[in-house]
Every structure is written in structure tokens, then in C-alpha cells.
Design brief:
The chain is an alpha/beta fold. It folds into 2 domains: about 200 residues, Rossmann fold (3-Layer(aba) Sandwich); about 160 residues, 3-Layer(aba) Sandwich (Rossmann fold). About 40% of the residues lie in helices and about 15% in strands. The chain has a 7-stranded parallel beta sheet, sandwiched between helices. A 6-stranded parallel beta sheet has the order 10-9-8-11-12-13, with helices on both faces.
Amino acid sequence: MNSRCRKSILVISFSDITRDPRVSRQVTALASEYSVSFAGFGTCNIENVTFIKLENFPTSVWEKGKKVCLLLSRMHETFYWQQRPVVTAQQQMQNLVFDMVLANDIDSLPLALKIAKTSPVYFDAHEYHPREFEDKLSWRIIQQSYKKYLCTEYLQRCATMTTVCDGIADEYKKNYGVTPEVIRNVPDYTEIEPSPTQENLIRLIHHGAAIPSRNLEVMIDMFQYLDTRFQLDFMLVPNNKNYLASIKRKASKYSSIRFIPPVDMNSIVKSINNYDIGIFLLPPSNFNYRYALPNKIFEFIQARLGIAIGPSPEMEKVVRNFDVGIISSTFNAADLAERLNSLNQHDIQRMKLNSSIASRELCFESNYNKIISLSKETISRIHK
């Protein structure tokens, strides 16, 4: 299709798309059908996409203090429209016209609605923002009322809304009267075979960000109870270097635990294929952790691994429906260790083969048509 005949879409995300797999796949899919511009931080090298670089949030003590004062004073609109990425985005895009604007996360939604003018807005909420970091007292005091305000004020103005799982979609519907569609965080399909299993060696892998609230220590504590067959590799992005150093110290007494360098997000699946089980024990310290259904679960499946998790309801549905892993009865290290110790070589091989079968359904190719269909429906609507 001639690009001049294509409908135009602006995608906004206050993130670096090279580190944001959900947004990267979203933009790539849309660019195959539409004339796409992406506004965000960092860089964007996706073919046929116009990149609009936004200025990032300031980090000075003065700016942070100003933010806290405005939020504590409940001056939500004043705070929002004074943010540096919002100001610079308006300066760069005030005269541009799009057939649809897609906003990622609640912080970009008011801006998207303003830039869209009379065009419809598709909002991808990702997580449940009103309770995102409710386990932190400072966030509850400073940020929570602001996030609730944005949801109350702006969600009803969207033509289309999506999120990552049923539990989060249900919570938005219950509290804000909206009905989000669910688009899971699944990776691209990879043609790859399960790696062979060994009788006396079970290789565990956990990859992701080193974030204190994820309580990665619990997975280290399992080694008090695991038998000698098990080895665990952590492949962590150092979001919090002090926290990463602390868990390395904690793990140092176990020779079966290693820390390996992280790889590019597009290389994860192939790089972990030689493991047996992907592990993620995530205590539900906040609402989003309780209903977490993260990229890594589907990357484990795409890598043809078995999965070991705690009783996280959204992850549990996937593991049970496709029979790809084990689920402990609690989030305690001893409980998951007991389930792992019960596995034999045949069990692991069966889980890996089931992941291979599930990989054809749980891949981005299954999301592609849904994103395109929702976008076409959204463009056809009259903006509220």
C-alpha cells in the first residue's frame, strides 16, 4: 500500500522502546499496516517508523522536590502539564494530525488525548496503575491519588483500551466502568527444539530486572531445601545495583547459583533454550504482582522450558491450561523446593515438550491480528 494512502498512527510511550518489548512489538505490528510515528525516549530503529524523541523526566533534587509538592497539594493537572516530556511532546507535535493515537501507560494518556484532538485514542494500560506500587508507603502518600485521578478523569475518554491479563481488566471494569481487551505480553514465535534433559542435572533460569520488591531472595532460599541436581542461573538487568550486589552476597554461599550477563531482549529465548526450567516465585506484595503475567513466562515457553511458579493466579492459569510446569501451594521457598525435588527426568521432558506445543499459540503472531483489528475499529470511531 502506498504510504501516502495509509492511515497515520502516533504511538506514545514514556519509555525507551529498545528496552520495552511490549511497545516494540506493538509498533512493529502497526507499522506493517499504517504510517506510524513513535514518540518516546532513547532511540527507535524500527523500519518505516518516524521517531519523535521526547525529553526524559528530570532527575535534579529541585525538580523532584517540586514534583512532590505539587502532588501532595493535589495539583494534579498543574503537575501533569508541567512535566518535561509532556511539554516537549506538545511543542514537537502540536501541529501534527493523526488518524489515531495510541497511549502506553496512564502517564501518556492525557497527552495522547490532547494531541489526538478529534481523532480516537487507543489506550494500552499495561498494568493496574491505581495500585501499582501500593507496597511502598511513599508511593501511596505521594503518587496514588494522582494515578487514581488520571484514571477517573481520562479513562472514559478512550475509544479502545487494552491490558495484559484478565485480573487487571476486571479491576478496571469494576472501579472505572471500562472494559479493556486483553493482549498478553507474548514474544515472537521462535522455531527451536527443546534441549535434552539429564538425569542428574536440572538447570534453572530466572531472567529479568533486579528490583527489591520482587524479592528474588526467595529463589535463593530454595537452595536450603533443593537436592544436589539443581543449578540456578540469574540473568539480571541491574536496575538497582545495590540490590543486585546484596543478592549476589546472599547467593555466594551456594556454589550451584551463578549470575550471568543479561542479553538483548530479542535474544532471550535462544539464550535460555539450554536450560530445563524457568523459575519465577513472586510474592504478591502489591496488586500488580498478585495478577502478574509477565514477558518471562511466555519467554520460558518460547524457549521450550518447563516452568516453576508460586500460586500467582494469572501465571497459574497458563501453566495449568498448557500443562507446562509446577505450582507451589504458597510463596515460601520450601514449598516450591519440595515440588521441584519431586520431579524426575521424564517429568521435565514432558513439560518441555508441552511448552513446544504451546509456543505456537502463545506467541506474538497470535496477538498481531488482534492489535490490527482493534486499531481498525478504533480509527473508524468518532472521538469522544
